[in-house]
Amino acid sequence: MTLIEILVSLLILAIGMLGMVGLQTVSLRNTQSAYQRTQAAILSNDIVERVRANLQGVEDGSYDNAAGSITASCTSISGCTPAQMAANDVAEWKQALAAALPEGEGTLCADSTPEDGTPAAPACDGVGDIFAIKIWWDSDRDGTAENLFTMSFQP
User: Fold this and answer.
1) Cα angle 102-57-120, degrees, rounded to a multiple of 5
2) What is the pLDDT of residue 116?
3) How far apart are alpha carbons 5 and 111 in whole angstroms?
4) Which of 20, 53, 110, 149 is the most exposed place for a label (fewest CB within 10 A)?
5) 116-155 b/e with 16+ CB inside 10 Å = b?
6) Over the range 17-44, which residues count as b (16 or more CB within 10 Å of their CB) and which as e?
7) Closest residue by Cα to residue 63 from 141, 113, 132, 3
8) Alpha carbons 23 and 102: distance in angstroms, whole number
9) Cα–Cα–Cα angle for 62, 68, 73, nearest 5°?
10) How far is it, in rounded angstroms, from Cα 109 to Cα 128?
């Protein structure tokens, strides 16, 4: 009888331990997801500050759905034109997205409906003076960027 009681106790203990392992797995997954969402928020604020520092580039439309290109002389606004600074800002921001998030991609554009689009087709309608930041990344690492973080702001 004592041996049966010990076996039943071990079975109950093993089931409890399996439950704890499952809880730990879910906790790690949620922690990683929160970290990635935090990175997206930090990078969104980065591009907002870059845009607000170059208001002439905003007025010229240089930030709206720009592809971006690195310009070596753009270490300050006096080293290049506002359009070059905007292209440089977007290119550096996109590089930071790719480095910080798995399959990280983003776009910055004038958009009245920021909650739509895909990385391949961001669905920017160009309506209004409100900018939308759309950031996609792949949280489950299946090769498809399905997570979307959006933020709207007015420069």
Assistant:
1) 30
2) 84
3) 67
4) 20
5) ebebeebebeeeeeebbbbbbbbbeeeeebebbbbbeeee
6) eeeeeeeeeeeeeeeeeeebbebbeebb
7) 132
8) 24
9) 90
10) 10
d(CA 128, CA 41): 23
Residues in the chain: 155
Residue 96 is encoded by which pair of tokens? 């930071």
The one-character DSSP state at 86 is: H
pLDDT block averages, 10 residues each, the chain of length 155: 90 95 92 93 95 90 86 73 90 94 91 82 83 91 86 90
**Hey, is 139 helix, strand or coil?**
coil
Q: Which two tokens stand for residue 144?
A: 């498809």
Q: What is the identity of the amino acid at 105? A: E
User: pTM of this prediction?
Assistant: 0.80
Q: Please give the Cα distance from 28 to 35 (Å, whole number).
A: 11
